[in-house]
Amino acid sequence: MNKEQVNQLNMYDTVEQVLNTTAYVAIWTPNAAMNTAVTTFMGHVSAINANDTVQKTSSVGTTVTKDSAQLAMAKAAIKTANAGKAYATATSNDVLFDQMNHTLSEITHAVDTDADDICQNIHDNLNPYIASMTGYGATTTTQTALQNLINTYSGMIGKPALQKTIVTNATITLAQHFEDANALLKNSLDPLMEQYEASNASFYNQYKSARVIHDIGHRKTVILEGFIYNAAGNAISGALVELTGGAEHHKTTDATGEYKFTRLKPSTYIIKVSARGYVTQSKTILVKENGTVDTDFTMVAATGTTPTGGGTTTGTTPPASA
C-alpha cells in the first residue's frame, strides 16, 4: 500500500471500531439499510487486509507464505462450515450437515490440492442456502472473502514463479476495494448516519470524528491474541472475549479456542472472558509498542455447574503461545 492508502485504512479501522462498539451495534443493526451498508463496508476492509498481505509477499519464502495462506483459508472455511452445521441442524438438513462436517486440523494437515478442494466444497455446498442464513454467521460477504482466500492459496500451490503475478493482481484488487469503500462511505453510510444526529448524538458524533483522515504514515500493528482452555488443557470454543480500554471489540473463540484482536494501537486494554459453566476472568494488558501480545486464559468451572453451550470443550489442545 502507498502512504495515502495507509492513512485511508487507518480511518477505516477507526470507523469500524465505532460501528463495532456494543452500544452502537444495537442502534444500527435493526436498520436494514444501515445493516447492509455496514456489512458491505466491513467486507471491503477485510478484503483490503487480505490483499495487502498478498501484495507484500515475494517469491522468497513462498513456503512460509503458503502455510500462512492455508491456515487463513482453513480458519475461514471452518467458520463457514460451523455456520452451515448450525443452519443444517435448524432445518434438519442431514446432507448439508455432512457436507459441512470438517475440522481445522483436517484442512491444515491435508496435502496441498486436497486442502483447497475441501474449502471449495464447503463454500460451494453452502452457497444455495446463503440467502436464508441471516443470523448464522455466513453471508455473501463472508463467502466472497472465503473464495478470495481459496484463490490466493490455490495460486501458491507449488508455483512460486506465479507469485509476482499474484502480487500484481492483488495490487489491482486492493485499489478497487479502496475505491469501492470510499464510494460506499460517501454515498451510503455518511448519508444514512444523518438520521442519528438528533436521536443518537454520541453515535453520530463519534462516527463523524472517525471519518477524518489523519496523516499517520503507518499502520497500527498491535495484535492481542491467545487461547481459552479449561483446566485439562482442552480448548473452549464459543467463549465470549470482550476487549475494552484502548478499543472496544468482542470476539467468540473458534474451534481451537483461539481469539485475536488486530489493528490496535499501543494502549491499556482489559480482556474479559466468559463462557457458560465457567467463572468469568479478566486481565489488564499494558501495550507500549507495536507487536503481538499472547495472553491465554485457563477457565475454572463454576461450582455446581456443568460447562455447556459456549463453554463446551472441544477436546483439542491449543498450540503453545509464541
Structural class: alpha/beta
The arrangement of helices and strands along the chain is: HHHHHHHHHHHEEEEEEEE
Q: Indicate how many domains the architecture comprises.
A: 2
Shape: globular
Using only CA atoms, what is the Rg? 20 Å
Instruction: Report how far the terminal alpha carbons are from each other.
Output: 28 Å
Strand fraction equals: 5-15%
Polypeptide structure, described:
- It is a single chain.
- The protein is an alpha/beta fold and 322 residues long.
- The chain folds into two domains: 3-177, no CATH class; 222-311, Immunoglobulin-like, CATH 2.60.40.
- The protein has eleven helices and eight strands.
- The protein has helices at residues 3-20, 22-28, 32-55, 62-90, 94-99, 104-108, 112-126, 140-156, 163-193, 196-199, 201-210; strands at 222-230, 240-245, 249-252, 258-264, 268-274, 281-286, 292-294, 297-299.
- The strands form two sheets. Strands 1, 4, 7 and 8 form a four-stranded mixed β-sheet that branches. A four-stranded antiparallel β-sheet has the order 3-2-5-6, with no helix packed on it.
- The two termini are 28 Å apart.
